[in-house]
Design a protein that fits this description.
This protein is of the alpha/beta class and about 180 residues long. The protein is about 30% helix and about 25% strand. The protein has one domain: Rossmann fold. It is built from 4 helices and 7 strands, in the order H-E-E-H-E-E-H-E-H-E-E. Strands 3-2-1-4-5-7-6 form a 7-stranded mixed beta sheet. Helix 1 runs parallel beside helix 2.
Length: about 180
């Protein structure tokens, strides 16, 4: 299924999404939040926020929900009025580098065309030392490849019960050998 069809389907089902998936998502969100918990002064981005279920549980300084479905963002805003919502693609986040402290993304990456690009975008906007919690459906063909997208120091859990692979970690700064020259335009 292509990106346009996925967006169309989520727009069409936004009204019933919570009644269909809230319990399942709640388990995943609770598990993710036990491993990566945002603090009060943090800036948090939820990539693929859907109806805002996770964001509604946080008390960070700035909460931003990203989704490609306008109808899902409307539901998220109605649920959590104080959040900022951004209609955007997980493969091209409209933020400057290293602008947030915590990234969450629950059961979204299997929906994108290029999972590695989406992971790279999340890591790009995450500050060095920032924490991430990313899950992907276990049945996704690339699920077992996900840990190598994030580098070293990753916590990795596979849950048949929750139907996801969970990836938690802290963004480490690039070594000097890997950093681009400051003199480049």
């Amino acid at each position: 299924m292509g990106k346009k069809e996925i967006i169309r389907d989520y727009n069409a089902t936004a009204e019933i999404y919570d009644s269909r998936y809230e319990e399942e998502q709640s388990l995943k969100i609770s598990f993710a939040m036990k491993h990566v918990n945002a603090r009060e002064g943090d800036t948090v981005i939820d990539v693929g926020c859907g109806t805002g279920q996770l964001l509604g549980l946080l008390e960070a300084r700035i909460l931003v929900g990203i989704d490609a479905s306008l109808e899902m963002l409307k539901k998220a805003k109605a649920r959590c009025g104080s959040i900022q919502v951004v209609l955007a693609d997980a493969e091209s986040l409209p933020f400057r580098d290293e602008c947030c402290d915590v990234i969450y993304s629950v059961s979204v990456i299997q929906l994108v065309e290029d999972p590695r690009r989406s992971v790279n975008e999340m890591l790009r906007v995450l500050k060095n030392g920032g924490a991430f919690a990313v899950t992907v459906l276990l049945r996704a063909s690339f699920a077992k490849e996900m840990p190598k997208y994030f580098g070293e120091g990753l916590e990795f859990y596979e849950s048949e019960n929750m139907k996801d692979i969970f990836l938690f970690g802290i963004k480490r700064p690039l070594t000097m050998a890997k950093k681009p020259s400051d003199n480049l335009l």
